[in-house]
Write a structure and sequence with these properties.
about 525 residues; alpha+beta; 3-stranded antiparallel beta sheet; about 25% strand
């Protein structure tokens, strides 16, 4: 591990890179610079490809996503809802070593008055004290019925509850010996890292917040009366839960509130997962930070994500600077603050104290008022600070189309498999199939395509896309037509610091070319009604 201390004079100019241009800034591993429709920040300047122009690589699956960057003082972000269950007053009244109060930096009267929102977040404390939220079992299935899902997806686990934490074992990594994180007791069918011995330095139950969103997407229609599957998709709030007061801002372009970047995610096939297309960023390989460029060897933050602006040479995306640190640093006198270490055994006590003294997780950079508290703490801690400086506050919408074939369901049915430490909702043909709302530990969710097909998912009367070509030939007694094309949307919100995990595994039969028209054709005669 590179422990050389950096001179302050070398660090400050690096921060200024946010406003500079770079000729040679490659996309971080796992991302591909590619064309987009209606792209505000295309990353290579190429135009959108047509089907005829595109060269399809069968070993890769490309997914179009929209990332929206937020500042951490947004009312729905960085609320420490789990800690507020027992430490609401401690946080509100906290005075830093420099005499500053958390009230001045966002944990103020407005935050305190939103206690009802914080207390509806499912976590181990709220579940134990008031039964808030729902636990996930060791088989990756919720331990209580979720009425937001269709009846055929309302499976219930017999438990015990799934636990996640820091494994007792260490592994040898590029930068030295390190601990890693994973599930303590997950069954083999659950995706994600599992602690080899089932022994952990710490492990907590996985609890999420169901029922936050409407189980049906809405679609804006184009001039020809057909729904736009990309720009026109709308997810709506169902219940006031887990700090979602301004949910209508999460997945929409809102000037002065968020900044948008279009990207293409590249999913390679994995021989370790039956040739599924896999995208996996977790605590053990650097985390999920699509708006940051990070050195893969020493894990230090390098710059904001690079883009090609429409009227400028290659430079940086129009996003907020990184305003968080990947450490657990609650704004109160945390009993383990002085002894905490990162996964590499480095003490993060001073880094956390410097962050809190500069204003803490909600002290962000206002236009023209200097850098965020996280950036100030980074400057004071050199390489250690850069290893933990990250952009956490963002949301993501992803889309792809896929073809269902009954022949692909043998010997095992195809599955959509996801893991997320932030809010996650997955829809197929506009109807909810995975509901993992709230800020939580990495939580798994999966659904079998055969189950959806046999139950005619998304093609029942009144469902959002029931009258379009995805439901041509479908019927309640026979299910989806063999060879029919269907539509996958997923929504993610990364609203809390320390852990940022996101992974998805999609069947090897999936193929999609970014830049295709994101709309359906109507078929009134042949579609289900």
């Amino acid at each position: 591990m590179n422990r050389n201390k950096r001179n302050l004079a070398l660090i400050v100019p690096m921060m200024v890179l946010l406003a500079a241009c770079a000729e040679d800034d490659p996309a971080p591993e796992g991302f591909v610079n590619g064309p987009q429709q209606k792209t505000t920040c295309p990353t290579d300047g190429a135009k959108a490809l047509t089907k005829e122009e595109a060269v399809v690589d069968a070993s890769l699956l490309n997914l179009d996503v929209v990332i929206r960057d937020f500042q951490q003082n947004h009312s729905d972000f960085e609320n420490f809802s789990e800690e507020s269950v027992e430490h609401m007053d401690d946080i509100y009244n906290y005075v830093t070593q420099t005499g500053a109060t958390m009230k001045a930096f966002g944990f103020d009267e407005e935050w305190y008055a939103a206690a009802a929102y914080h207390n509806t977040c499912g976590n181990m404390y709220s579940f134990e004290s008031a039964g808030v939220g729902a636990q996930i079992g060791v088989d990756g299935v919720p331990m209580q019925v979720n009425p937001a899902l269709p009846p055929y997806l309302q499976q219930v686990s017999a438990g015990p509850v799934l636990e996640y934490g820091e494994c007792a074992e260490t592994v040898t990594a590029l930068s030295g010996l390190k601990h890693f994180r994973g599930y303590k007791n997950a069954l083999e069918n659950v995706n994600g890292t599992k602690c080899p011995s089932g022994k952990n330095n710490w492990a907590n139950p996985v609890v999420y917040t169901p029922g936050m969103v409407d189980p049906y997407l809405q679609f804006k229609v184009n001039g020809n009366g057909t729904p736009d599957m990309y720009e026109g998709v709308v997810i709506k709030k169902l219940n006031e839960r887990c700090d979602n007061k301004n949910f209508d801002q999460w997945f929409a372009d809102v000037p002065s509130v968020n900044k948008r970047v279009n990207m293409v995610f590249e999913l390679p096939k994995s021989t370790e997962e039956n040739n599924y297309f896999v995208y996996d960023y977790n605590s053990n390989n650097g985390g999920f930070f699509p708006l940051d460029s990070v050195n893969p060897v020493n894990r230090e933050w390098v710059s904001a994500k690079s883009c090609l602006e429409t009227i400028q040479p290659k430079g940086f995306c129009d996003i907020f600077e990184p305003q968080s640190l990947s450490i657990f640093c609650p704004p109160y006198r945390y009993q383990y603050a002085s002894t905490q270490q990162d996964l590499y055994g480095q003490s993060t006590a001073k880094l956390c104290a410097d962050w809190l003294n500069a204003g803490g997780p909600r002290a962000v950079n206002s236009e023209g008022s200097g850098h965020s508290a996280a950036l100030q703490a980074t400057i004071m801690n050199g390489a250690l600070g850069l290893q933990h400086l990250r952009n956490y506050g963002f949301t993501m919408v992803g889309y792809t189309a896929f073809q269902y074939k009954s022949s692909n369901q043998l010997p095992e049915p195809e599955e959509l498999k996801f893991i997320s430490s932030g809010d996650l909702w997955v829809f197929v043909d506009g109807v909810l199939v995975i509901d993992l709302g709230g800020t939580h530990l990495p939580a798994p969710g999966s659904v079998k395509l055969q189950t959806l097909a046999q139950n005619n998912h998304g093609c029942h009367a009144g469902e959002p896309l029931a009258m379009y070509s995805n439901c041509r030939g479908a019927a309640d007694d026979t299910g989806w037509a063999d060879g029919s094309t269907h539509h996958l949307h997923f929504f993610v919100a990364n609203r809390q610091t320390e852990i940022s995990d996101f992974s998805m595994s999609l069947p090897p039969s999936f193929t999609f070319v970014p830049g295709e028209p994101y709309q359906l054709d109507g078929d009134d005669e042949n579609c289900a009604n």
